[in-house]
Specification:
This protein is α+β, with helices and mostly antiparallel strands and about 425 residues long. The chain contains 11 helices and 4 strands, in the order ααααββααααββααα.
Amino acid sequence: MRARPYYVQTLCALFGACAFVPAVAALDLEQAYQSALANDATFASVRSAYTATLEKLPQARAALLPTISLAGTRANASTTRLPGVTYTNETYTLQLIQPLFRWSGWHAYEQSKLQLAVGEAQLAQGRQDLILRVAQAYFDVLAAQDNLAFIGAQKIAISEQLESAKRNFEIGTATITDTYEAQARYDLAQAQEIQAESDLAVRIGALQQIIGTPAGDLAKLPPSVNVPAPQPARIDAWTEQAAANNLAVAQATLNSEIAQRGIEIAKSGHYPSVDLAANVGRTRGLVGQTVVNDFYTTRSVGVQVSVPIFAGFGTTSKVDEAVALSEKARNDLEVARRAAVQNTRIAFQGVNAGLAQVRALEAAEVSSRSALDANKTGYEVGVRINIDVLNAQQQLYSTERDLAKARYDALLSGLRLKAASGILTEDDVRQVNALLR
């Protein structure tokens, strides 16, 4: 019967006890994301900002709707025209003002619609950022777990090699140097294990900070998984999507339109305002030289016009300021477009480079395992020394660790590519989650 590969034996020795523990459902990526949606403070801040933005529309609309006010005065009075007479003056007025023409109010209302759209884009970007942060933290934990597991397996393998070196020295088939070399490697592995445990604790803490709950066991990425390549496979298709759909570009486009509306709002200082005014009043008190104790009613309906004539050049200055801000917004839009295209190119190259690295490391894993088997056989027959076996062991475990990390990085690069092109959604989380076990 063919013996199992050495690294499989050592990993089984580390984790074999898990078979006797009752199965508990592991936290997967989609569950972590849903938990983060409910508990992440950063996303909660974005969501609250969006809720506040929703109020801009009714606030701007209010400037176009009627306003109704009620005012009243009551005072005891006397006059020299009626010596010795004290009377009460009372006036109550109900007023309605309906704007008919207010240039600034109309453009402020249209501007508020754009601000609402900006808020929606910011909320969508907050979701995309949350997906990336959860995925990064999740795979950081898996990578740290892998690193600790491989160091533990390497430590067991070195320990067995150390015992073999001691036995061979005792029977005279090896020198004390073999023992010292194995002991040095074992001590180094112990130090690396301590560091790996600390790193794992930090990574788990970072994930728990985002999801707001204890992480527990995580669903793993199987070694046999095939990381999907980006579709479409042409970089131009991705950059075109980024220019059209990237959320930073969308926000910059909307901000440019908001700035254009700002010019019109500034210009409104040159234009008249026209309002419909209606008043109903109830008054009693002194009328001429007669004290009237009963209320009488006054009514008026009309149009009031206010025409600005001179404001100390303040309006002109505000227009110039708004024009400059509009130019800035156009430049910011161009910056956003270029950044989106560049980030998409970088992400696309990152995905392809990551996939190539995965393929190279898969080949290196096979070669490293064969090299370890050959060195162990050579050591047993005396044509290899102990340090050769130790080096081969370290090479195999390092390759396996790097391969697992490369798979995680390739998946993350795929998510970043979709985020850069503005199409990252929860469906992409589910697709990656389907690869976990």
